[in-house]
Amino acid sequence: MKVWILIFFVLIANQANSQLKNQRCFVCHGVKNFGIVEQGKFKSLYVSREDFEASVHSKFACVSCHVDVRVIPHLTKPRKIHCLQCHFEGNVVGAPVTAKPEKYKESVHAKAVAKGKNAPDCKDCHTVHYVRKPEDPNSSVYKTRVPELCGGCHQTIKEEYYNSIHWAGIKRGELSSAVCSDCHREHDILPPEDPRSSLNPKNVIGTCDKCHSDVKLMKRVGVPVTNPEAYKESFHGIALKFGVVKAANCASCHGYHDVLPSRDPRSPIHPANLAKTCGKCHPRANENVAKGKFHVLPGEKESGIVYYVYTFFKWFTLIVLIGLFTHIVLDLVGHIRRKRKKASE
Amino acid sequence: MDPKKEAERLIKEVEAEEGVTLDAEFREKLKNEIAEKIRSEIERKRKEIKRKVEEEEEYFVRFSLNVRLQHLTLAVGVILLIITGLPIKFHESKIAELFFDLIGGIQVSRILHRIGAGLLIFVSIWHTLYIAFTKEGRNEFKELLPRKKDFLDFWQNIKYMLGKTNERPKYGRYSYIEKFDYWAVYWGMVIMVFSGLILWFHNFFLGIFPKFVFDIAKEAHSDEAMLATLAIVIWHWYNAHFNPHVFPFNPTIFTGKISKERMLREHPLEYEKIMKEKLSREGKSDER
């Protein structure tokens, strides 16, 4: 019996398919308060036609994705659909295929979803019907909207982030400033314990470095571009490079979500707060730690006294070694000359 | 060589030459006498050779056991410090990575570095006590003090090396080269030990010194380490190993012994002094 019904529907649907234009869907779904009551709650089934038609999927018919809708009005609830229905390797509808879904599968979000927890998958960030390119200012994943998007779940972190210099930069229109995804990445968001994570202590420097060693960008925003380099030369940087994970990385001192410049009294690197910040690891740290420059590169004149120590040793070593080397060469040449003289005699 | 056979041969030779035959009894007596003479002559020669060999092998004790152990401790400490310190200075190199992998991580290397530092500090205290409280140490220290002669020797050596003169400078117990090495260690020690201690006990010193002191300590430690390493590898090793006079290796600092021949060539004035003292001592004992 069931088989007969199915065959019946397929026949009908085949006939109706060509006429099944989006127009007919929007008759109901284009009405703002269209919805159903499900488990005692009102569930909106409204789809903004205007927004859908501005999306990357505008050229597709609703039924291209909702393939189980064969008659309109459909009497049953359409099955849940998934992006990978089209976005898979070898699909025939021309849906772009990237490594992003695979990356996502590794992420904390996918793992949580697999455990049955409430965590986002594609649609939670990219929306269902209004997917736009990330460059599009109206996209749900447009740079300036990312904090709000992630903050939908991570609310306290969002509040912290809104205090940071990075958000201040975005608000000022400096779109190169960092939002969530710049540090946490987009799809392969991994826990800091994972060695592949951009937030793993060993990778933090590289994560910050992406922007903070960009000469043009740092010049534009007025941040010293040599800081990551100086860090790599410091004991902290060297220890971390060779696996001492407890050594301070950028975030240990600067904080992360609420990064602020040293001139801001709320910043952990404000001179008044340095004793406390250094004191996290170095118990005897006091106001002395604020007396001196940070991220010192000995070869730079801005490094003050360290530059002069460096310069002194540079010349001193050069002069001493030239002297010693000359003495050795004279000794050797003299020795050879005498030996030859003796041999010829 | 059998003296009797040799004597027999000599007699036969004379007999044949003169065409006579000696009386048997006289002949036997003569043979024994000649054999005895040959035997004593051989004995005398043998003794002479032995004495000559001994004379050639004559050596002087240049360094006491105390000094040799000081040098050994210093050498082990410094080598340990160099091989564990350089990979930190040149942390970007592949060799640094390889070294830390080999040794079991940077934390192991840090411990080894501090063992080296301990040896270095220990030997500096040892040496200070040695020159302050032992007669030998005070004498050695006095010998090592720079004086006008060192500058004249230096000048003379330059002329000698350039071939302007055939007269080598006559060094005393320590040449200006050895004195330079000795005093260079003071400079190095002061910088390395003080900056090193600040870095080692940074948590303690953080409560005392402003931050820039640590930056200076780090820079000085790193730069002076480079200078010391180069000076040791190029200069000190040349003078002690690769110099054609001593190549491949001058063992005196480890054995304490120096041959008379080298003594005469390298420290003629000290040799003279020792001989004079010996003579005057022998003279005094003769008087007695």
Total DSSP E strands of chain A: 2
Biggest beta-sheet profile of chain A: 2 strands, antiparallel
SS element count, helices of chain A? 18
How do the strands line up in the largest sheet of chain A?
A: 1-2
**Given the C-alpha coordinates, what overall shape of chain B results?**
elongated
Please identify which CATH superfamily of the largest domain in chain B we are dealing with: Transmembrane di-heme cytochromes, Chain C
The assembly state of the depicted protein chains is heterodimer
- The name CATH uses for the topology of the largest domain in chain B is Fumarate Reductase Cytochrome B subunit
Beta-strand segment tally of chain B = 2
CA gyration radius of chain B, whole angstroms? 31 Å
What is the rounded distance between the termini of chain B? 47 Å
Structural class of chain A: mainly alpha
> How are strands sequenced across the largest beta sheet of chain B?
1-2
- The helix/strand order of chain B is HHEHHHHHHHHHEHH
The end-to-end span of chain A amounts to 123 Å
Structural overview:
- Chain B: One of its GO terms (biological process) is respiratory electron transport chain.
- Chain B: Residues 62-243 form the Cytochrome b561 bacterial/Ni-hydrogenase domain.
- Chain B: It is a multi-pass membrane protein.
- Chain B: One of its GO terms (cellular component) is plasma membrane.
- Chain B: Pfam families: Ni_hydr_CYTB (PF01292).
- Chain A: Residues 1-18 form the signal peptide.
- The complex is a heterodimer of chains A (345) and B (288).
- Chain A has 345 residues and is mainly alpha-helical.
- Among the domains of chain A are: 1-81, no CATH class; 300-337.
- Chain A contains 18 helices and two strands.
- Chain A has a two-stranded antiparallel sheet with strand order 1-2.
- In chain A, a hairpin with a 2-residue loop joins strand 1 (35-38) and strand 2 (41-44).
- The longest helix of chain A has 40 residues, at 305-344.
- The radius of gyration of chain A is 32 Å and the shape is elongated.
- The N and C termini of chain A lie far apart (123 Å).
- Chain B has a two-stranded antiparallel sheet with strand order 1-2.
- In chain B, helix 1 (3-18) packs across helix 2 and helix 5 packs across helix 6 (135-144).
- Chain B contains 13 helices and two strands; from the N terminus they run H-H-E-H-H-H-H-H-H-H-H-H-E-H-H.
- Chain B folds into two domains: 3-56; 59-281, Up-down Bundle (Fumarate Reductase Cytochrome B subunit).
- The mean pLDDT of chain B is 89.
- Chain B is an all-alpha fold.
- Helices cover 80% and strands 2% of the residues of chain B.
- Chain B has helices at 3-18, 24-56, 65-89, 94-103, 106-133, 135-144, 148-162, 176-200, 202-205, 211-242, 252-255, 260-266, 268-287, and strands spanning 59-61, 257-259.
- Classes of the chains: A mainly alpha (345), B mainly alpha (288).
- Chain A binds chain B through residues 235, 238-239, 241-244, 278, 282-286, 288-294, 296, 298, 303-306, 309-310, 313-314, 316-317, 320-321, 324-325, 327-328, 330-335, 337-338, and chain B through 88, 91, 97, 100, 105-107, 158, 160-163, 202-204, 206-216, 218-220, 223-224, 226-227, 230-231, 234-235, 238, 243-245.
